[in-house]
Amino acid sequence: MADELGRRATRHAVVIGGSLAGLLTARVLAEHAEKVTVVERDRIPEGPEARSGVPQARHLHVLISGGQRALDELLPGFTDELRELGAPKVGSPRDMLQWQGGTWFRRSEESAFFFSGPRAQLEWLVRQRVLADPRIQLVDGTETVGLVGDSTRVRGIRVRERGAGADKEPRTLAADLVVDASGRSTKAADWLSGIGAEAAHEETLDTGLAYSTRVYRFAEDGLDTDAIGCNIVPNPGQRYGGVVLPLGDGRHIVTLSGLRGEKPPTEDGAFEEYAKRLPHSLVSDWLDRAEPVSPVYGFRNTSNIRRRYDRPGRRPAGFLATGDALCAFNPVYGQGMAVAAITAVALRRALADRKRTPSTRRVQRALLDASRQAWDISAGADKKMPGATGDAARTGLRDKVAGWYLARLQVRAAGDPVVGTPFREATMLAAPMSTLFAPAVLRAVLFGPVTPGPVEPPLRRTV
Known about the structure:
It is a single chain. This protein is α+β, with helices and mostly antiparallel strands and about 475 residues long. Helices cover about 30% and strands about 20% of the residues. It has helices spanning about 20-30, 65-75, 80-85, 120-130, 190-195, 270-275, 280-290, 335-350, 360-370, 370-380, 395-415, 415-425, 440-445; strands at about 10-15, 35-40, 90, 95-100, 105, 110-115, 135-140, 140-150, 155-160, 170-175, 175-180, 200-205, 210-220, 230, 240-245, 250-260, 290, 295-300, 305-310, 320, 325-330. Strands 4, 5, 13, 14, 15, 16, 17 and 18 form an eight-stranded mixed β-sheet that branches. Strands 7-2-1-11-20 form a five-stranded parallel β-sheet, with helices on one face. The protein has a three-stranded antiparallel β-sheet with strand order 8-9-10. Strand 15 (about 240-245) and strand 16 form a beta hairpin. Helix 2 (about 65-75) packs across helix 8 (about 335-350). The termini are far apart.
């Protein structure tokens, strides 16, 4: 991999963080480097178990269409293997009871689908595939405490073992390239300052949304429908959300959400009581006939954060950021795993570009561009919510025009497949946002009538 500073092949690349983003980054870098080392602060479990350093690991995760395509490109046959492990495949809108904007969606034939199995299962499968490459080494139980180099170039990292009996003295791990995939709690700002470089400006947008999750086993008649999931989508006038999805082993995961000051509880009984705040009793009725098989887990850190490494600043060559360390989204939109894979594909294409030297700045810009659509969806929705704070919460004329158009689009998506199909494809990152402005969609949004969705949840498919 050429570099604007070294102009030589990368012998050793280091990835900070062994999560999905870090592993997929290592997969791509192994195509160019002689050796790739993934440094992970947690001890990695041998099987498909949650890592302690992933605070949202026990919560709902979905792999949407755009992420599936990217993973199959990076790891051919991946989604087939995921399906063989039992991850449920959920068609949208066919398999879902979805309430949004005051109406239920018609359960027409699926135009997109997602997987809803446990995150730990998916991450374990990625880890097995990636670490089968002998060029990639995982060093776990080791935290990164700083960078090695100066403001012009990074030449490695300083690491320290974690745990009882570990050698606490930092040591240097030399590298030609360092990629930060350590997540939304990255310490990159301190690391860069430590070598005389400048941290990236952070754009933030926070609605104060919080969610709580519990796993249930439903009675045989608990889900009195041929749908396999439910999604109550909040909006500025209705601030509560609820999702029910299968995990693939006879259990269902239920997540309830609310905005600042209305966070769902984590106490026994109170969680089920909170479900009664939703605009329909469907979820609450299901919970009344279900057996909880896990504690209630809460998650509160849901702000959108984008670190603008693409903007001018005194930053070193040989250092990149990816995954949540680059752009972290409100997890309620289910984009994180997909963006990790999509960004890894963007990295592969940037490094393989024969027409342009893959300089640090150019590659970093490509990674940010790969996350832009997900940011526009997540931040665009969140800035409309009451009480949203942060410098990215400001709205201008362009936001108002886009908001007007998207509001008309969403109210038609529930009943009109001409609008609903591209809407789902775009929100699942399987098609660009420009799809929403195709001539047929424009005509339907600007001049077409609103086909009302069902008043009550469509418990049975009609097609």
